[in-house]
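Here is an idea for our session: we take a single protein and study its fold together. Which protein we use is up to you, so please pick one and set it down. Once you have written the record down, we can walk along the chain together:
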Amino acid sequence: MSEASVSAIRLPSIRGFWRGEDMARRMVYRLLGGLSGGSLVLHESGSSVRFGAETAAGMPHVEIRVRDPRAFQYVLTGGVVGAGEAYMLGYWTSPDLVAVIRLFSANMAAMDAMDANSSRLRQLLMWGFHKLNGNTRNGSRRNIGAHYDLGNDFFRLFLDEQMMYSAAVYPSPETSLEEASLHKLDLLCQQLELQPEDHLLEIGTGWGGLAIHAARHYGCRVTTTTISREQYNHACERVAQAGLADRVEVLCQDYRELGGQYDKLVSVEMIEAVGHEFYSEYFRRCSALLRPGGKFAIQAITMADQRYVQARDSVDFIKRYIFPGGCLPSLEVIARHVARDTDMQIVNLRDITLDYARTLEHWRERFLAAREQVRGMGFDEVFLRMWEFYLCYCEGGFRERIISTVQLTMAKPGYRFDEPGHRSK
């Protein structure tokens, strides 16, 4: 990544908001007084203050060290996003950042209060920037490039050997990240009941891991598409190296540009980049691409049904700094669009939420162990702390089930069921 790209991370100046460190501290203390599940000890300048219930069994008990009092102003004016920005700047730290995220995830009322008390002007500005990242055809390419075009060498530092940037599935506590990633691929292929005569379409290639796995181990033909140029180039190279160019075709096309019909369809953690305005178009297109009797499997990060509208209409740390244009669906939203916009029916659902928490734990450990290599690529300390916060933010959310992950399978009319695991031909 170039120096120009690194410097593109622009954090807001607190001067543009509201001054008064002592007043900000008192108001943040008042918000923290609402903690009930778990406890927080806040250290600053040799003194310590405790918030929450120290004796709450099974709940997170965490420590935060404030290194710069401007942290309070960032939290007060920016809510949870402001807290993340203050962490990026090194204004506060913690020996267990995941536990901090878990604590506030278990105290959603306190998190909501922080956001509600943040600057209205700042909220409007963030929402305005987010709206500019709409997932039109051009916007989607721009948004995907902003994250995935950080470089294949960067992602290779912490992903598994298949470079799967999605939840692995762990069949046992002893399973490694590499084994769990392969197990996830097998579960998806088995849900699709892939056969050598099938032509599988994958929407969202990643770095080619699923397409190669399906062709190599299930013998099917695969057409896979991505709109990330970095991922496209890498996937093409991997397919050629694997000797599967006659079985796997890699495209660099938006899902809205695809035509033809396929026996099976798979999409792994791509729906989060679709955008709520385009869910109907996405599901209609997927249904149209499937032949009668076909199956469609997706792996999706989901928001709780009860919080979907609030999350959809707000800008969190992930939307602001990691995935521009992102939006998590809920299970109710997915089911509604399947019923309204397709002729498919949902036939299987597997919850893998805690598997994603463990996946993120492995990614975080590898990322932090590779700090020097990341620096060597031209990334600065703000970027490093931003990614650390991002990985911890997601892991803590999954561990407290504020967000979830599912593998969900749908079938077109004409699909026939016999005994479990067996399909009529």
Notes: The two ends are 51 Å apart (CA to CA). Residues 301 and 405 are 4 Å apart (CA to CA). The chain has 18 helices and eleven strands. The chain has two domains: 20-130, 137-411.
